[in-house]
Design goal:
- The protein is of the alpha+beta class and 292 residues long.
- The protein has two domains: 3-112, no CATH class; 124-207 and 220-282, no CATH class.
- The protein contains nine helices and ten strands.
- A six-stranded mixed sheet has the order 1-2-3-4-5-10. A four-stranded antiparallel sheet has the order 6-7-8-9, covered by helices on one side.
- A hairpin with a 3-residue loop joins strand 2 (99-103) and strand 3 (107-114).
- Helix 1 (3-20) packs across helix 2 (29-42).
- The radius of gyration is 22 Å and the shape is globular.
Length: 292
């Protein structure tokens, strides 16, 4: 597991623990199982030798943990009936939340970000699903994508390349550009509700709160997507090398950086986008909570 992934799981665990310690029940069995896995990964237990020593002390918890009470007091989540921890695969369905809290009146979704504000990691070959593209464009896109994918895979196989790291940098950058040009071509064709679907998929903005933990500046930043305006127009969409930039009609500026999602080269090339909002602070309701 990467260091960033590990730190993200740590932050998710301590937010979940905040509510579990209030005796809020899990929404389902899989949530309890995930919580236990996170706990085992993030809480250091003593060895048998340490247990026999009176001097053993557990390592200190991260500083931010003691400030979670203050953070959630400001958010004013009330009458919580259950907590659900979502699997990572929910992102494929358009839901990027890690945790959801069921209340008397609705469900609050929380996306936990530890020193990271990437909001989604969509696969380029899933663009028709993300936008609810019409049948004709969906068919054409899949055909063009398959041709591009197969062309590169066959080349790599001929060259006996098995890992993305084996691909010469210049060739890899040309490949990324080709996939980005295809994505931009079809995003530019979207209209109305299709644009709204793309934005909603990227942002997961239905009652979602992104809680970003900046351990260098020692503060939480909360981005409230609950009242986000959903756009039905795109002002511009361009690609430059590995990056696609989209400016939506509501002034949201999205940057999507393509990269390989696995080390191995497979028949269906494993690619995904690291997606960020460039103007989050200006676009969404926010507040900060320091823990110096």
């Amino acid at each position: 597991m990467s260091k960033s992934r590990s730190c993200g799981n740590e932050f998710e665990y301590f937010i979940a623990r905040h509510f579990v310690n209030q005796n809020i029940p899990f929404g389902d069995v899989s949530s309890k199982e995930k919580f236990d896995r996170l706990k085992n990964a993030n809480i250091v237990l003593p060895t048998a030798t340490a247990l026999s020593s009176s001097s053993w002390q557990p390592p200190p918890l991260p500083k931010y943990v003691s400030h979670l009470d203050s953070l959630f007091a400001k958010l004013q989540f009330k009458n919580i009936k259950s907590i659900t921890l979502h699997p990572d695969t929910d992102g494929i369905k358009g839901r990027s939340a890690d945790i959801s809290l069921t209340t008397d009146t609705d469900i609050k979704y929380i996306s936990c970000k530890n020193n990271n504000t990437s909001i989604k990691h969509p696969r380029p070959n899933a663009l028709p699903t993300q936008t609810k593209m019409n049948i004709a464009d969906t068919t054409a896109y899949h055909q063009e994508y398959a041709q591009l994918n197969d062309s590169y895979y066959n080349t790599f196989e001929t060259q006996k390349l098995t890992k993305f790291s084996d691909i010469p940098l210049a060739d890899k950058e040309k490949m990324y550009l080709k996939f980005n040009q295809l994505t931009v071509k079809y995003i530019a064709k979207l209209t109305g509700e299709q644009i709204a679907h793309l934005f909603t998929f990227i942002m997961s903005c239905d009652k979602t709160y992104i809680i970003s933990n900046d351990t260098k500046k020692k503060k939480f930043v909360v981005y409230d997507y609950v009242n986000t305006q959903i756009p039905t127009t795109i002002k511009s969409v361009t690609c430059n090398g590995k990056n696609i930039k989209i400016e939506f009609g509501n002034n949201a500026k999205i940057n999507m950086r393509i990269h390989n999602a696995s080390k191995q080269i497979t028949k269906t090339l494993s690619l995904k986008y690291d997606t960020k909002v460039e103007n989050m602070l200006n676009l969404f309701t926010t507040f900060e909570e320091s823990y110096h």
